[in-house]
Design goal:
With about 425 residues, the chain is of the alpha+beta class. The protein is built from ten helices and twelve strands. The chain has a six-stranded mixed beta sheet with strand order 5-4-9-8-7-6. Strand 1 and strand 2 form a beta hairpin. It is flat.
């Protein structure tokens, strides 16, 4: 009789931070001196605490497509800016919205800044100041740049009670400071304890699988970086006059070391910038002594970069849950209303599926303040594009023009039909 193998099962508990560190070691959230450090892992330290700075760099220097999509999101979120939801309460709500704080911002300009933060970070932060009656007076709401904000560590119940503000969170390798960063500790939203904490932070974000918000385009970050490298590649080609990578070999012909150095400098200067000459002259005594140019393998990589560029565009647009026409690339698909209708349809779909949810989060946060003051809610309406389609009499157009203007269709192949294309009388 064979011995039976005994199988035992053991339940293991996976700690989220260790698990995330294994699957994505370059981006993690860690406890650093009582603050949840938001790291990238690419600035020379595992605790660089510079992920928001990284997102800003991607926006400013990463990809034109990405920057365009972030700007479009911010504009659609902002819409026509804040207004009273109920018209009869406008006389009470409007003065509250228009009152400026000590920084010179009113609630409308604050909402504009929140829209940009939400578009880039998928999160936003407000600073509010309560009075002795537990109200938030007009002009007591401030925008907090999202990159200045960090969360404190959670308590034993997993809730985070405090946030921190600082202008110097990122520990980047070329500007690292050994001393502890200076920061201001403020209570997160807790209106019931306004007497103890009169100044509080309102942290607005969508649900995510982290303490910090996850950018909606995070899956496309690598493609944004690739797009930037492609741009650098072409910029380098322009600076070198599209000189092929290779080695130029010529006879020494008794040249001294000084003469070789001088000739080398002349050749290097020739291809060192956008103002270089276009013709390389070689003077030889015999044709057999003419210089030989050996082209390196891979000099046709510009074609590969062009292919990558198209793929980058598609993946960045997809990462933003957008449509090609909104990124500046028109498609060949037909539309009954022409190109204008395609653009308007894409904007309406993008607004409904993406930016309206972001706007709702921001308005919900602001309306918490309105409720504290027992004021009516505010809204922000994003109107569709006002497009005036051309109106033309059918007799004024050829068949091809009617197909194009009215239906967005290409001309028919005249060789395969007997239709009168010029609308000439029979």
């Amino acid at each position: 009789m064979q011995d039976k193998t005994k199988i035992t099962f053991k339940t293991i508990t996976v700690e989220p931070n260790k698990f995330l560190n294994q699957i994505n070691p370059d981006q993690q959230i860690s406890n650093y001196e009582g603050i949840l450090s938001w790291n990238t892992g690419i600035y020379g330290s595992k605790n660089d605490n510079a992920f928001p700075n990284f997102l800003i760099d991607l926006y400013q220097n990463g990809s034109a497509v990405h920057q365009n999509m972030v700007n479009l999101k911010a504009q659609l979120i902002l819409g026509n800016n804040l207004q009273s939801e109920e018209t009869e309460l406008s006389s009470v709500v409007d003065p509250f919205i228009k009152k400026r704080n000590k920084s010179g911002d009113n609630l409308k300009t604050v909402f504009g800044k929140l829209s940009k933060d939400m578009a880039l970070f998928n999160g936003a932060v407000l600073q509010v100041v309560f009075n002795r009656e537990g109200k938030i007076p007009a002009g007591s709401v401030y925008h907090v740049p999202f990159q200045d904000f960090r969360l404190g560590t959670p308590n034993r119940y997993g809730a985070i009670e405090f946030g921190y503000l600082s202008k110097n969170w990122g520990r980047i390798s070329n500007s690292i400071e050994n001393k502890k960063k200076e920061s201001v500790k403020l209570r997160l939203w807790d209106p019931e304890n306004f007497m103890k904490y009169p100044t509080q932070l309102l942290f607005i974000r969508d649900y995510s699988y982290s303490y910090y918000p996850i950018p909606s385009y995070q899956a496309a970050i690598n493609w944004i970086l690739v797009d930037r490298e492609i741009s650098e590649f072409h910029r380098h080609n322009v600076k070198t006059n599209f000189f092929l990578a290779g080695m130029l070999t010529q006879m020494r012909q008794g040249m001294s070391d000084e003469q070789i150095e001088e000739a080398s400098m002349e050749l290097e200067n020739f291809y060192s910038g956008t103002k270089g000459r276009k013709v390389l002259l070689a003077f030889v005594d015999q044709m057999a002594d003419k210089p030989v140019f050996d082209q390196f393998a891979g000099s046709d990589q510009d074609e590969l970069f062009n292919i990558l560029g198209i793929q980058c565009y598609q993946n960045i647009i997809t990462g933003h849950n957008s449509y090609p026409i909104l990124g500046g690339l028109d498609t060949k698909s037909a539309d009954l209303g022409g190109s204008e209708n395609k653009l308007n349809t894409a904007l309406l779909a993008f607004s409904s599926l993406v930016t309206e949810g972001m706007k709702t989060l921001l308005l919900d946060g602001i309306n918490r303040i309105m409720e504290i003051n027992q004021l009516g809610n505010v809204i922000a309406i994003t109107e569709p594009l006002k497009i005036t389609l051309p109106i033309a009499h059918p007799d004024d157009l050829t068949q091809a023009e009617r197909r194009n203007y009215l239906y967005g269709l290409p001309p028919l192949d005249e060789s395969q039909n007997n239709v009168n294309p010029n609308n000439d009388p029979a």
